[in-house]
Amino acid sequence: MSTAEKIAESALNLFYRQGYHATGVEQLSQVAGVTKKTLYRYFPSKEQLVEAALQRRDVEFLARLQQELAAAPAEQRPQTYVEFIAAWAQEADFNGCAFINAAAEYAAPSERPHVLAKAHKEALLARLVEVCAAAGLAQPVLAAHQLFLIGEGLIVACQVNGVQASTLAAARQMVAWLVSGAGTSAPA
Fold this sequence. Notes:
The protein has helices spanning 3-18, 25-32, 36-42, 46-70, 77-89, 98-105, 112-134, 140-161, 165-179.
């Protein structure tokens, strides 16, 4: 792993645990095991380090999701997506979604972390359209939007309230409803 990758990985872990604004450059350099001078040589500003951390998270998250989806039969992938979110929320180091957190801390739509968060969510939604089409759902675009909202709601609910059996059961029931076709009717 290169020095830049090591710094970005350390930064991602700190930002994810503590928040973007709450994490200082001194702490970032200490955790990465480099001097502040070295950190600034690779990332001339904290904002560039935030960007590198989010880009790293985007690649890692989507690759991990793809691995889970690929292991499931196509018709079961909508449920697999929700099970992926449920399993992730139960991990000891779960602190919600790095992109939701970034969009909250960098609220202006023009701020680069917010732009990266939007791009990540758009890429995720595009992947879910593929998932719903491959699963044979009648209206894959509508179904993907619904599945996306179920997943995003599950992430936030687990971040705020902790993982609760009733929340997981509700998300699973909503996906079952969606896959059965009941949830893919266009609103009147």
